[in-house]
Design brief:
69% of the residues lie in helices and 0% in strands. The chain has 170 residues and is mainly α. The protein has one domain (12-147). α1 (2-31) runs antiparallel to α4 (67-77), α5 (82-92) runs parallel beside α7 and α7 (112-122) runs antiparallel to α8. The radius of gyration is 20 Å and the shape is globular. The termini are far apart. The relative contact order is 0.09.
């Protein structure tokens, strides 16, 4: 009996956690100034997993001039789904592919590579513009972190010895 109650409590807690997470997305959209109807708010709150990416894409398609803001808010609230959200939005509003990708990268810089790959896969004809926008957004994110007093230094030079900068005669 105790195991059953514990199992039910855990299931209820997990289910309510998902509801809160989706409510966070609705709150983030509204905080970003995205005008939503009550039906759109309910669709966002009710969406789970991949369905959230579809709902966000639908919102972006309905309001293409705000697509970047919509994606930025959704990705900020759901960084683990950043690539799926970006890909769905880029497919829905390909004319805004670069802006959508840049906004997603700024919202979740740790996901920049996955976001860019998903956006390019969704709109391969715009690969150059998407990649340039993602690189610019990633650079501005690094500059923002660095200028805020937090050091986030990275280097493309291997940390192990070897190489020394001279080309091999072979």
């Amino acid at each position: 009996m105790r195991k059953t109650l514990t199992g039910l409590s855990l299931a209820l807690t997990l289910a309510s956690g998902q509801a809160f997470a989706d409510q966070d997305t609705a709150n983030a959209l509204q905080a970003a100034g995205v005008a939503l109807t009550e039906a759109q708010v309910q669709a966002v709150v009710a969406a789970e997993g991949e369905a959230l990416a579809t709902v966000i894409a639908d919102l972006a398609a309905a309001n293409p001039e705000a697509a970047a803001a919509i994606v930025a808010a959704a990705v900020a609230a759901n960084p683990a789904q950043a690539a799926a959200i970006t890909a769905a939005a880029v497919k829905a509003v390909p004319a805004q592919a670069a802006a959508i990708t840049a906004a997603a990268v700024k919202a979740a810089p740790a996901q920049a590579t996955a976001i860019t790959a998903a956006a390019v896969a969704a709109a391969p004809a715009q690969a150059a513009a998407i990649t340039a926008a993602a690189n610019a957004a990633a650079q501005s994110s690094v500059a923002a972190v660095t200028s805020s007093g937090k050091s986030n230094t990275t280097s493309s030079v291997p940390s192990s010895s070897g190489g020394g900068g001279a080309a091999s005669p072979n």
